[in-house]
Amino acid sequence: MPETEVGRTDGELVRLCLAGEQAAFDALAARHYRRVYNVIYRMLGNREQAEDLTQETFLRVYSRLDTFRQGGAFPAWLRRIAANLCIDHLRRRGEQTASLDQQLESGIEQVDESAASRPEDRLVMREDARRVVEAVQRLPDRQRAVLVLRHIEGLKIDEIARTLGMPQGTVKTLLFRGRQAVREMVGEL
Questions:
Q1: Residue 110: pLDDT above 50?
Q2: Under a CB-based contact definition with an 8 Å cutoff, are residues 36 and 54 in contact?
Q3: pLDDT at 78 over 60
Q4: Complete domains list, the chain, with CATH
Q5: Which uninterrupted H or E stretch holds 20?
């Protein structure tokens, strides 16, 4: 990333992109790539698909940069594009779950095993985490998106609502129902 791009805000980089400076878009992409990839990966559970959809997200951002409302939150706009592409992809694909083996091999579960002192406790924690991951992957697309954005990305309800373009009440309902469905699938841990 050129040194002149490092200290700039997202808004400044967007303005430079719109003025035709390719380096500014490269700086935006470099700044946000990892976070977008992580959101998509958590929603899809597949590395290759996450890489493809991350690239598609940035292509969409580039082609629609002129629709970004200056003064708005660029990361939220970017997350919204990524989440909507994921939901569309899942609908087209017609699958509700990803391969559990792929998820576990890829490290989608990141259990803090330091909290468990005995090997048996660590094994139970790993198994519980595996069951939760499997349950989340079985949720309907919108519930999964809300749970990922809330519990993995740490977004607040209003941020999720803006990201997914839905009312806060809908987000709360999807979050409640998603949690309830995971509890039913996994049982109380």
A1: no
A2: yes
A3: yes
A4: 1-96 (1.10.1740.10)
A5: none
